[in-house]
Amino acid sequence: MHRKNFGRNRVLQPSAAYTPADEQEVLEILDRHSGQSIRAVGRLHSWSEAILGDGVQLDLRRLDNVLLEPDGEDFFATVGAGCQVKRLLKELNRGGATLHSLGLIDVQTIAGAISTGTHGSGRHSMSHYVEEVRIARYDESTGKAFIDEVSAGEPLLAARCSLGSLGIILSVKIRCRAQYHIQEHFTESRRLEDVLAAEESYPLQQFYFIPWRWSYFIQHRREDTGKRSLLAKLYRLYWFGVMDYAMHLKILFLQRVVRSRRMIRFTFRRVVSTFLIRNWKVTDRSSSMLVMKHEAFRHIEIELFVPRDKLADALRFTKEVIEVAGGTESAMSDVNQQRIEDIGMQDALEELQDQYCQHYPICVRRVLPDDTLISMASGGDQDWYAVSFISYAKPARRAGFTLFSRFMARSMSQLFEARPHWGKISPLEASELTSLYPRFDTFRTVCKTFDPQGVFQNEWTTALLEACLLYTSPSPRDS
Fold first, then answer.
1. Looking at residue 478, what is its pLDDT?
2. Are 398 and 434 contacting, i.e. CB atoms less than 8 angstroms apart?
3. In what order do the strands lie in the sheet with 16-18?
4. What is the 3-state secondary structure (H, E, C) of 10-68?
């Protein structure tokens, strides 16, 4: 018995698999397999080792109830762990509500989304808005499974983004808000300063750093109290047909069939911009505007979070690495070359040269600091920016992207305090990862309290929790 994830880079081979119908059945399964390794699984739209487990596997898709309750001008929703975000949005909309924060896709389960710090742009991650988590775990004194309601203190901060390490999440209580509209339009700029300055007027915007063209396509977004635009349906059709499918099919054709770097570079310099309609301002419901059909074609992704004061340097560094990796430059600028030498990665840069051609726009999203222990945007007093690198290469042809993602994660974590997304490619060693989080030791303590025997861990999370004990070098942000 085995299952593969969306990106086909992870294989799950559980010793036993269950799809329980309710919370009581979850407890019965835990009691039946007491002492064995147990992990929950969502929709497998993750590329990291967080989803792995060779023990007992629980698929909670049948735990998908949604209960919406008013709370003054806002709402609370109690959501079954296995409920997909897209179903949750539909149920909330029936009650005139929606989530505060939405990721690019809506196919994940709510438990999987918060466990890895899923985020949108211009707000906190989804984890930040979680008020209570019901977790099935074992009573240390009796050894029997029970349900723990976590709603305060450090346990709640840990449960908001837990990597599945506290127990089996059964349901989540999350703060919601009244449904609202978003106004959106696109522009292009050559200057990052202009892109960031636009955040004052468009706080929900995200932007795309276009490889080989080296300009920014800005998806300006802000809340709008006006009515839904008359052409909103046409805009959605444009997005679906042109952006979600036509542009991606063009990229897929170039990457998987033509496989010409010259054609890829030409396409991004001259052709990709023709897919974009600039300054078409459209207002529509937030849950329609903030998501994409990003899951329509199989891909793999690494996403690195950098603090705002390091974003400009990080993007200049990114451009130069891509040019070296793509074979258009043989060396980096003096400043970045010195940085590479200072961290001892000159050999790694030489190994990367001419090995990978970036063939997808680099998406950049702003995330406000989270009130969590280890979500990627946790801690600090400034905003974080998620910089996303995607490859549409077939699984058998990902060697170049693997080399590129490993280099970017290792170099940018040391140079720009970059944190890899927990749910995406995360090539750093356990000690390197945990050193990026000033409160990881607190997270470890909560995990050991909730799961002293480590039955809810896999090899990767176990290494993370043990690394925190062995590696004590402080994070730069903790000084």
1. 40
2. no
3. 16-18, 56-59, 38-41
4. CEECCCEEECCCCHHHHHHHHHHCCCCCEEEECCCCCCCHHHCCCCEEEECCCCCCEEE
CB 204 within 8 A of CB 122: yes
The answer to whether the beta carbons of residues 167 and 150 sit under 8 Å apart is no
Nearest to 164 by CA among 129, 193, 189, 133: 133
335 Cβ neighbours under 8 A, 6+ residues apart? none
DSSP string, 91-136: HHHHTTEEES---S---SBHHHHHHTT---SSB--GGGGEEEEEEE
Residue type, 417: E
Whether this prediction's pTM lies above 0.85 is answered by yes
What does the DSSP 8-state code read for residue 422? T
Cβ distance 408 to 30 under 8 Å? no
Distance of CA 411 to the CA centre of its chain: 20
Q: How far apart are CA 439 and CA 370, in angstroms?
A: 13
Three-point CA angle 369, 372, 374, nearest 5°: 95
Beta strands in 165-308 (DSSP E): 168-178, 181-189, 206-209, 216-224, 282-285, 300-307
Residue where the block lists tokens 């459209």: 282
Compute how many other C-beta atoms are within 10 angstroms of the C-beta atom of residue 111. 27
> What confidence score (pLDDT) does residue 469 get?
57
> What is the model's pLDDT at position 468?
52
Nearest to 7 by CA among 408, 363, 395: 395
Tokens 């998987």 found at = 256
DSSP assignments along 246-275, one per residue? IHHHHHHIIIIII--HHHHHHIIIIIGGGG
Task: Please give the average pLDDT of every successive group of 10 residues along the chain, which has 479 residues.
Answer: 87 95 98 97 92 95 97 94 97 97 94 96 98 97 97 98 98 97 97 98 98 98 96 95 94 94 96 94 96 88 98 98 97 97 97 97 98 96 97 95 98 98 96 96 97 96 82 40
